[in-house]
């Protein structure tokens, strides 16, 4: 990753880029929404396509000179169609939030009703949080996970749908470690004649590879991010049946966005091509195997996990049982000092502030990209526990940091 030109023009930014590269190389990226893209995706995203205006869609643009932009976007669409099997894919959303925005804009009017999962139970800001436009423009009610099991309370969701009569039900989550039963949510949507948006932002890669069931063909709309478990660079996508294709395309552009970020779409095309290779399926299986190992290791040490384990790439530990005086944010800080980067996270039945909540969330997508297997992940689980159990000990944090440095060297990121 040559930044010689940046260094000539702007040493301050060049230093920050070099620092960030070293930071990624020398820390364990366990924020469940993060991953590491290939150098091929980096090159595509850092390409001359950043110069090109291509408002419109392939074959019908508002600007001249779009022949290569068309080629790239068509490739991204073709590959996405192959990966997820939807009738129609729009690859232009700048992010997962903007993919969701396009769906709401396509089918809702201001004041319409959204039924979604509570943020502290694993939902997302763009599903109706009061601080997000969705919480301000639409009338939002929320369903929850079952407090005893940590699984989505599907019966409660159904009952909430029947009493609230929403226009759209949103499924798909940010901090939910279990398989989502799309058909049960669809049944609730059918019962009240609501649309169903399945937001697979976190599990886009797992769904593409078939290690998590797909909502495509069940939900009316499927949205995703392209930088979490699929390594195609920062961005979003929307998928739907042919019947909604025009409405979605218009809602993305001109409804909510101007010119597409063609360099990011090139990154998507390249990342999707990589995800169509057989190695990607093996990668996603390893991601899930590693998450299971991480879950078992933490549980063996005595940590409580929401839902008692995981089916996907993430675990959510509720520290209140084992470490009642340790908020998740403090655990996050101690772990970061040992170069293990994850986040404090709210848990179902949260009793603390969202700024320093009761849980920690950890994902295995990034480690698995570096080549970590179950054995290496189990060691990471041991290291996480040592820090959590000794947040006040500079010696422990130092020792864990030393071991993390060795692991990072053993599993290098970029050449
Ligand atoms: C990450 C995430 C998104 C997308 O977030 P962006 O940062 O806007 O790309 C959307 N929905 C869910 C459930 C997510 O976890």
Give a description of the structure.
Residues 7-384 form the Serine hydroxymethyltransferase-like domain. The modification N6-(pyridoxal phosphate)lysine is found at residue 228. Its cofactor is pyridoxal 5'-phosphate. The structure is a single chain. The protein is α/β, with parallel strands linked by helices and 415 residues long. The protein folds into 2 domains: 43-275, Aspartate Aminotransferase, domain 2, CATH 3.40.640.10; 280-410, Aspartate Aminotransferase, domain 1. It is built from 16 helices and 15 strands. It has helices spanning 4-9, 11-26, 39-45, 67-84, 96-107, 133-137, 154-164, 182-191, 204-209, 245-256, 262-276, 278-300, 328-337, 365-369, 374-389, 394-410, and strands spanning 28-29, 56-57, 60-61, 88-90, 113-117, 139-143, 168-171, 195-199, 221-225, 236-240, 304-305, 314-318, 340-341, 343-345, 359-363. The strands form 4 sheets. Strands 4-10-9-8-7-5-6 form a 7-stranded mixed beta sheet, with helices on both faces. The protein has a 4-stranded antiparallel beta sheet with strand order 11-12-15-14. The protein has a two-stranded parallel sheet with strand order 1-13. Helix 6 links the parallel strand 5 (113-117) and strand 6. Helix 5 (96-107) packs across helix 10 and helix 12 runs parallel beside helix 15 (374-389). The mean pLDDT is 97. The protein binds pyridoxal-5'-phosphate. Residues 33, 95-97, 124, 126, 172-174, 199, 201-202, 225, 236 line the site of pyridoxal-5'-phosphate.
């Amino acid at each position: 990753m040559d930044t010689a030109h940046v260094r000539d023009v702007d040493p301050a930014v060049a230093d920050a880029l070099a620092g960030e590269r070293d930071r990624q190389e020398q820390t364990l990226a366990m924020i469940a929404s993060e991953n590491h893209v290939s150098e091929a995706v980096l090159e595509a995203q850092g390409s001359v396509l950043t110069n090109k205006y291509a408002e419109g869609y392939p074959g019908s643009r508002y600007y001249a000179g779009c022949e290569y932009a068309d080629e790239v976007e068509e490739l991204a669409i073709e590959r996405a169609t192959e990966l997820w099997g939807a009738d129609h894919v729009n690859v232009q959303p700048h992010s997962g939030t903007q993919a969701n925005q396009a769906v709401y804009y396509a089918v809702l009017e201001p004041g319409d009703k959204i039924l979604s999962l509570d943020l502290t139970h694993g939902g997302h800001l763009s599903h109706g949080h009061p601080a997000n436009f969705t919480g301000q423009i639409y009338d939002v009610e929320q369903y929850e996970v079952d407090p005893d099991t940590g699984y989505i309370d599907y019966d409660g969701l159904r009952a909430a749908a029947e009493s609230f009569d929403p226009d759209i039900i949103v499924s798909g989550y940010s901090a939910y470690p279990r398989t989502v039963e799309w058909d049960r949510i669809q049944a609730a949507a059918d019962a009240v004649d609501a649309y169903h948006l399945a937001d697979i932002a976190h599990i886009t890669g797992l769904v593409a590879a078939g290690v998590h069931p797909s909502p495509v063909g069940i939900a009316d709309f499927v949205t995703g991010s392209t930088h979490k478990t699929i390594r195609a660079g920062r961005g979003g996508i929307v998928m739907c049946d042919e019947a909604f294709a025009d409405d979605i395309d218009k809602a993305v552009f001109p409804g909510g966005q101007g010119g597409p970020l063609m360099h990011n779409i090139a990154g998507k095309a390249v990342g999707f091509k990589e995800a169509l290779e057989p190695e990607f399926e093996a990668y996603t299986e390893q991601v899930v195997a590693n998450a299971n190992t991480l879950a078992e290791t933490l549980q063996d040490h005595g940590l409580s996990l929401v839902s008692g384990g995981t089916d996907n790439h993430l675990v959510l530990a509720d520290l209140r049982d084992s470490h009642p005086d340790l908020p998740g944010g403090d655990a996050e800080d101690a772990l970061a000092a040992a170069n293990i980067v994850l986040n404090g996270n709210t848990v179902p039945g949260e009793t603390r502030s969202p700024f320093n909540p009761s849980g920690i969330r950890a994902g295995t997508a990034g480690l698995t990209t570096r080549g970590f297997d179950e054995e290496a992940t189990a060691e990471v689980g041991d290291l996480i526990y040592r820090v959590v159990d000794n947040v006040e000990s500079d010696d422990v944090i130092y020792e864990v940091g030393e071991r993390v440095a060795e692991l990072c060297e053993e599993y290098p990121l970029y050449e």
